[in-house]
Inverse folding.
């Protein structure tokens, strides 16, 4: 078994999963924090169904933005991908 020692004690198990979390990259626009949960979301997998049948905007041009746009395209009426460069930074598979 694997052993993990924490401030809460020692835990034993066959498998250890490290879920360190992540911080979303905010846009820094006016009132953004007030709108979280009221139309602004940072997790397409978590919150995508709230936008079923609606037009959504995904901001970014990397792999995460492209993957989220593809995921949302299965539930949203329309997905708009907004980024600041003239080409996507996402890997080629997302371009296709």
């Amino acid at each position: 078994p694997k052993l993990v020692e924490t401030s809460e004690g020692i835990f034993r198990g066959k498998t250890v999963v490290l879920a360190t979390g992540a911080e979303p990259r905010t846009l820094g626009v006016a009132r953004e924090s007030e709108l979280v949960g009221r139309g602004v979301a940072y997790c397409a997998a978590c919150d995508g169904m709230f936008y079923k049948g609606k037009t959504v905007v995904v901001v970014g041009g990397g792999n995460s933005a492209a993957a989220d746009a593809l995921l949302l395209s299965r539930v949203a009426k329309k997905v708009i991908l907004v980024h600041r460069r003239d080409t996507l930074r996402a890997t080629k598979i997302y371009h296709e």
